[in-house]
Structure formats: C-alpha cells, structure tokens
Amino acid sequence: MAGTEWKPTACILCECNCGLEVELGGEDGRHLVKFRGDKRHPASQGYACEKPHRLDHYQHGRDRLTSPLRRRKDGTFEAIDWETAISEVAARLANVRDSWGGDTIFYYGGGGQGNHLPGAYATATRRALGSRWRSSALAQEKTGEFWVGDRMMGVATTRADFEHCDVALFIGKNPWHSHSFPRARVTLKEISQDPARTLIVIDPRRTETAELADIHLQVRPGSDAWLLTALLGVLVQEDLVNQAFVAEHTNGADDVLAVLRSVAVAECSARAGLDEGLVRKAARAIGKAPALSSFEDLGVQMNHHSTLVSYLHRLVVFLTGSIGKPGTHYIPTTMIPFATGASKQVSPVAGAPIISGLVPCNLIAEEILSDHPKRYRAMLVEAANPAHSLADSKRMREALTALDTVVVIDVAMSETARLAHYVLPASTQFEKAEATFFNFDFPKNTFHLRPRLLEPMPGPLPEAEIHSRLCEALGAVTEADLAPLREAAELGPEAYGQAVAEAVMGDQRLGAQAPVLLYRTMKLPETLREGAVMLGLALRLAMKEGPSLARAGFAGDNPLAVAKSLFEAIIASPSGVVFAVDEWSDVLRRIATPDRKIQLALPDLLEAWRALLSEAADVRDSAFPFVLSAGERRSFTANTIIRDPTWRKKDADGALRINPEDAKRLGVGSGEQVRLTTKRGSALVRVELSDSMQRGHVSLPNGLGLSYPTEGGEKATGVAPNELTASEDRDPFVGTPWHKHVAARVEAVG
Ligand code: SF4
Residue 619 — very low, low, confident or very high, per pLDDT cuts 50/70/90? Predict the structure, then answer.
C-alpha cells in the first residue's frame, strides 16, 4: 500500500518464525497494526498464516512487567530498582552456590518459539554460578526422537523435503496448524491436489491435514506402535524393503527383519483400530514411493510408547532407504548443535538420562522435593512458565515453593513469576534484536537476526543486559576485562576480532564470559545490539561447517575471517540470510556412528517392542473411560506467548472437543458445560461437538488457563491442561510426558 512503512521482523508463534513486515501505528506509534509475509525472507518467502495478525496482543499485554519485583514475606510483591534487584539476586544465587554448590542452581527455559538469544547470554550467568543442570520444553517433547536418532545415526535429528516428496507421511502431526516446515499449508495443498503424490496422515482425530489426505489412518488413541508395526510388517512381508540401501548403509537389519517377518499384520491393524486393507494400502504407497518424507510430532511423542514409536518411525524411513536424496530425509547444517543425544551423566537425584543436555521435565519436581544432598535449591527461569507448562502443575508449584531462591526473567507476570522471589522484567521480542535457532532447511539453510522494531519501554531490559549485569555483580567480568576489547573495537573490526579471539581462547574464565564480552564491547547499531553473541556462534560454525558456508558465499581458509564475513551478512540482512548450502550427497556422509552406518537394531527398544507384541489387549479403567488429548494445537493457540485471551477470534475459552454420539450419551448439547476429571484434577469446561473426534476421545487446546487482569480482577480463561496431568505418566526411557493420552471421565453437570 502506498505510503505505508513496512518494517521487517518475524512471527514468534511457532518454530517456523516466518519473516513478516509490520506497519506500526496507534496513538503512540507503538502498536503493531498490520502484518504481511516478508517476501525477502529466504525461507518463508512471503508466507504467513492467520496467527501473527493478532501479535499486538502480545506487545501490549496488560500483565507486562515494568519494574523488577521482590516478593514480600506475605507473598505480595514490591517494585525495586534495577541496582537493588541485580545485587540481591546475585547475592542470593552466590549464597546458594557457596552453601550447596553451583550445581544445585537449576536453569529452566532460555527462549520460546521466537527468542533464543537469551539462552545464549544465560550461559555466561550459568558459568559464573557453576550451574550445571538445565531443562526446557524440548525435554517434554523431542528428547525421545533425539535419543533414538543419535543412537541410530550418531545425529539426533533429521528433517524431510516435503516440497519434493512423492509420499508425505505425518504421524501424530497436524502441520496445517503446527507447521514445522516453511510454507506448510501451500505444500500440503500441492501434495493433496497432485494425483501422482500421496498424503498419508496417522492421527486419531480427523484433523485439517487429515481432511486433505489421500489416506487417513484414524488410529485408536495411543496405539500408534501397533500401527507402525503393521506398516513395517507389510513392508517386509511384501518385499517392499529397499534391500540395496539396507545392505550398503545399515547394520543390524537381521534382528529387525526377524521380528517383522512373523508380525501378524491383521492383528496389529485391529489393535490399532484400523481396517487391514487400508493399512496395507498405506504401506504399499510408502514402500513403493520413489521419495518418502515423514514427520512425527507431539501426537505420538507425548503418547504411550512414545520412544518406541520414534524408533519404529525411523525403521520405516531406513528400511525404505528414504534418506539422502531429494524428496526424502536429510541432516541439515544448523547454526548451533541444539539437538544431541544422551550424555554419560544422569540427573543428580532421580538418575534420569540427560538427553540434549536436558533433565526430563517430568522429573524436575522430583529432583527438588527430595532430601538428597544434591537436590536443586534454586531455579533461574527465563522466558518459560514451568508452573503452567509442565505436567502436574500442583506438584510443580509445590516444588517451586520449596526452593531457596526462584528468579524469573520474563515479559509478563506468569504463573511461575507469581511464585518467584525476584521477577526481572524483560523487553518484548520486538523491543530488542532477536533470533531463533530453529532453522532446519535444506539444501539452503537460513538464519534471521531481526532488528529491534520498537524503542524499548522504560523499565524492562533485554536479557543480554540482565545477564551482563548479573555476571558483573558476580565478579565474573570486570571493567579490566572489558577495557582492552573496547580499545580494540575503536581500531576496527579486524583488530577487534583478533582481540576477542585472543581473550577468550587464552583465558578459560573469559571464554566462559564470551557472550557478555561481545555484548559489552562490540560496536553495533543499537537496533542490533543483542545480536553481538552471534559472532561467537558464527566462529563455531566457520570452524565446523566450512564447505557448507563456502557454498553460501562465506569462503576462506581463516575461520576468523569466514566468521566475520558471515556475521556481517547476518547483521546486514534484516529479512534473513542463507548461511549454509548443502548437497544431498553430504547427507549420508553425516552419519556419525563409529562404523558410519545406520544402526537398525537397538537392543532395549527391540526388547520393548517384543514385549508390546506379546501384551494382552488394553483394559480401560471404567472410572476413566475417555482418552483426553491435553494440549491440542488449534487455529488460535500459541503456547503461552500471548496471554491476553481476547487475541483468540474463535474458541475463546478453548472448548473440549467431543464426538457427538458421546455427547448424546452423556446428555450434553453443544456449548454446554461438562465436568472433566482425571486422577489428578477436575475442571468445568464447555464442549464443542465435533465428528472429527472418534468416540471415547476428547481434546483440550494448549495454552489456555492463563491468569490475566480484567476489569473484575485476575481471571483465568479456559482449562490449564497440566492441572489434569500427572508427572508419573511418562515414557520409561526418556521421561517425556503422555499428555496426549490422559485417562479421563466426562460428566454432564446439568
Ligand atoms: S506458520 Fe508459524 S511462524 Fe509462520 S505465521 Fe504462522 S504461526 Fe507464525
């Protein structure tokens, strides 16, 4: 539109982080009034869904924090100045470190769907305190997939080339709403409308993606392992395995094939609640596909047998040779190695596996509510809301209350902030430079450092500034450390880069504080200041991924020079930059197991699989005859990033979806309230009759139940799903929760 000034930024509501252009307006010129997709963004290319149009509800939330807060003895909060807040927080955390050890200071969060730079700066604070253990939402979603991927490939995660596949398979995923790959809806429609391509969806609900599918395998909730076994059985028994690929690139096939040769496909299909003929049709499409792309997501990763399902899914991929060629799976070059496998360490109290560096979320409360000498004593929570988003909220609140010190860094007064001793207000994602590391595209991968869109509001500070002040108050960084770097910065970028490299490589203490050194001393435009930490990450990438960077135009023998040119491109590209270009032939070379082959036989998972196959049929508890899927992604849900309930144009209070026949049997009409009860809690909720649900299955959306100020006082809208979930209901291998399979009772309330 003529005269409109469009400013580049990104959507912060899902991991795609589509590039957006925004028009600012309103009385103060600070409102985000219009949005459109940014065509210059190299990944999203102008695409955006409906959600970002309501982002001003995030920027102007009524519960935004404007000053540091300190909890009084009576539980209320008083505003304090920043100097007091930083010195008291540093002193309290230092006291915990000195009394019980820095490893009793637990870090949770570090970023959401749109902000990962805080986590990069928090490493400096954690190192200053000796904090060792941490976790984030990934540890209740993706760690099973990472664990399996790492053991099979030596690489935690793969992604898939849906744009060019012949068959697309989605397992417990509804990309129409949850996206996860660029321009998801465009790609789904293209596959759906092309008669030569096949879209297969495995989901108990007839989702928006299932509506587009050629084959919808409407699996009985929680029986995905049976269905995948049936699909694999058909592949083996009908000779649809890619024998050449298996022989050349894998190990351990015999053990797997031995199980699958004797699998009873008809019985497994029946256990999954499906017609055997439809299962065979899907398996044949998968087995005969020249190029298969697949994606598993929370529908199975938060469900019964979740880690086993991740394993079986990978067997489908590898037995069909669906990796390393266009239209199949790939291993991308990522800006940081954020997904890794299991370490040799286990958590200090429960002995839980640490995958991707993360303590399983469902065990955090157990690690606190213990008399173990190494129990967590303090918690630093950043851009996250564990009191709401982790299983068993009641127990999580109890755990947070038992800690010596809780410090929350956040934009708004969250459920967790209400339990903190100190709350430090952060700038919004539009008041600072920000970025995410959820970039998995291939062969070109992108990175987007978005400049500050708005002048910062007085009071809150960017997390980079908060962590720098904390590190200085802890004595980890001094003016004497910074002065030489400031002087070098005056001499120009080469001298500065050299001085930083010498400082951080020559002194372990300063190496640990690299993010703060860069933030405090680098010469950058104010609108990009928080991006300083990217220089260190660019250097890491230049040392590790030279060929991929060179193909993207960042070539050279000197990693420091390559990092400098990449960093300069990042800060000069407000709509994002292509930082790596890969080749399909790179993919199989990235298999990092000791023999460079994919390990098909994982003994513990094979054992769990055999045990599953000998299990008797499930017996439902008659007291809880429904399966509740807690935390469904819908048109107007976005985790807890937007707290203002009026941002939702539809389904404002998040109805419980229920099959019409179930509703009729219960005597409940559309829009009426029911009581929803699980072993852990009970809630009143409005119902929406939907024949997309199968009988016996009900679903609640994610992100509801947040407390928000209204004219009549604080009010929570909708049901907070984790008031109904139990922390002990989790995967036996990696501890991920079974939120999509909560035994429940639904009753009319009259
Ligand atoms: S796909 Fe995700 S990132 Fe893109 S506009 Fe929609 S919610 Fe935002």
Answer: confident
Say if 601 falls within a structural domain.
yes
Do the domain assignments include residue 64? no
> Which numbered atom of ligand 1 lies nearest the CA of 16?
3
- Measure 281 CA to ligand 1 centroid, in angstroms: 33
CATH code (residue 51): 3.30.200.210
Instruction: Indicate the burial class of 613 (C-beta count within 10 angstroms; 0-12, 13-18, 19 or more).
Output: middle
pLDDT score, position 3: 67
Q: Of all protein residues, whose CA lies closest to atom 4 belonging to ligand 1?
A: 18
409 and 540, same domain (yes or no): yes
* Residues found in the chain: 750
- DSSP-assigned states of every residue in 114-132: S--HHHHHHHHHHHHHT--
pLDDT tens digit sequence for 164-222: 999 999 999 999 999 999 999 999 999 999 999 999 999 999 999 999 999 999 999 99
pTM of the full predicted structure? 0.96
Based on the fold, state whether residues 315 and 247 are members of the same structural domain.
Answer: yes
9 C-alpha to ligand 1 centroid (Å): 12
Instruction: Write the pLDDT tens digit of every residue in 99-153.
Output: 999 999 999 999 888 999 999 999 999 999 999 999 999 999 999 999 999 999 9
Q: Which atom of ligand 1 is nearest to the CA of 37?
A: 5
Domain that holds residue 506: 69-132+377-436+444-581
Q: Does 591 map to a domain?
A: no
List the residue whose alpha carbon is closest to atom 6 of ligand 1. 49
Closest CA to 432 of 457, 462, 411, 460: 462
Mean pLDDT value across residues 278-292: 98
Strands (E), 301-346: 329-330, 342-346
Pocket lined around ligand 1, Cβ cut-off 6 Å: 11, 13-14, 16-18, 48-49, 51-52, 179
Q: How far apart are CA 251 and CA 597, in angstroms?
A: 6
